[in-house]
Amino acid sequence: MKNLLPVTLLVGLLALLWYELFYTKAHELPSALIGQSVPNFSLPSLDSNAQFSAQDLQQNQVVLLNFWATWCDACAAEHAMLMKIHTQYHVPLYSILYKDSGKNARDYFAQYGNPYLNTGIDSHGNTAIDFGIYGTPETYVISPAGKIVYRHVGMIDQTNWDKVLYPLILRYNKRG
Amino acid sequence: MILQCFKFSSVCANIALAILLLLLTNTLHATTTHADDLYPFAHPELAQRFATLSYETRCVVCQNQSLAESTAPLAADLRGKIYLLLLQNKSDAEIKSYLVERYGDFILFKPPLNKVTFALWTFPIMGILVIFILLWRSAAGEGSMLLTS
């Protein structure tokens, strides 16, 4: 009975260590911007002469903002799923082209299709830093109130779309 | 024969010395041009602050390296951002706050004490206290047993 406390403490510490070592995903850090408004930005739009800005993302429904580049292999692998989100799920999808040129993006869309309603060209990656991104692809879920509610790091596939993203979008759309 | 061998070793030594000098010059040149070309500062104090800030912040891509050490493209971008902010006369606290607002406390190798990091900072002290209490209680128990016996 006397030794119960130290043994419990030791077991607890080992369990914590085990969990941290094998179950936490060190590269999936929560965004520091969760619950905050979309950072202010204004970028040249790929689709029009107007600027693509933070105000464009504030709508009466959930929108997705995807950071991508034509040189990014994971983004190419994700593209089919983004097309599906655009054509089948009808969730408004916007993008920021990270450290890439508009010409590359236009050629890419001509070949594979354009799932985005608008794309801003972030040639130097400054807007990406304002969003705290650390790689492409990354996708932000923006609530109807214009707040960032979730960040998805890496590719969106059918599994994480069904399990995490789509239920979250439906929930926030229902809340309004 | 001995003379030839001696001559040969002398030539070898000269070549080795030349290679060593060449490497040394190249290394020195590389380090000075790296600092001079990429992040030129008018004052050495700013260069020192830049170096300190880069070593105190974590590369979020390769998480065990500082921004100064990392070769990741994002680390280079963030070093560039720190450089620009220093040129805009921002203080160290403002620059750290800029990075924390975007990447969270995780970007600092030495996170501040707040409600999230409270357990992290207090755990060692609490642990030592618990050990002392346990040792004290156990010693007190043995002492009272000796007295009663």
Give a short overview.
The complex is a heterodimer of chains A (176) and B (149). Chain A is an alpha/beta fold and 176 residues long.
Q: Care to describe what's here?
A:
- The complex is a heterodimer of chains A (176) and B (149).
- With 176 residues, chain A is of the alpha/beta class.
- Chain A is built from five helices and seven strands; from the N terminus they run H-E-E-E-H-E-H-E-H-E-E-H.
- Chain A has helices spanning 4-22, 73-89, 102-112, 126-130, 158-175, and strands at 42-44, 51-53, 63-68, 93-98, 118-122, 138-142, 148-153.
- Chain A has a five-stranded mixed beta sheet. Chain A has a two-stranded antiparallel sheet with strand order 1-2.
- In chain A, helix 2 links the parallel strand 3 and strand 4.
- Chain B is mainly alpha-helical and 149 residues long.
- In chain B, 72% of the residues lie in helices and 0% in strands.
- The longest helix of chain B is centred in the N-terminal third of the chain and has 37 residues, at 2-38.
- Chains A and B meet through helix 1 and helix 4 of A and helix 3, helix 4 and helix 5 of B.
Oligomer: heterodimer
Q: Which regions of chain A are unreliable across 5 or more consecutive residues at pLDDT < 50? A: none
> What is the chain-wise order of helices and strands of chain A?
HEEEHEHEHEEH
Q: What percent of residues of chain B adopt helix (DSSP H or I)? A: over 70%
Strand residues, percent of chain A? 15-25%
Number of helices of chain A: 5
Overall shape of chain A: elongated
Distance between the termini of chain B: 90 Å
Indicate the radius of gyration of chain B in whole angstroms.
28 Å
Query: Mean pLDDT across all residues of chain A, rounded?
Result: 91
Q: Roughly what is the average pLDDT of chain B, rounded to an integer?
A: 78
Strand elements of chain B, count: 0
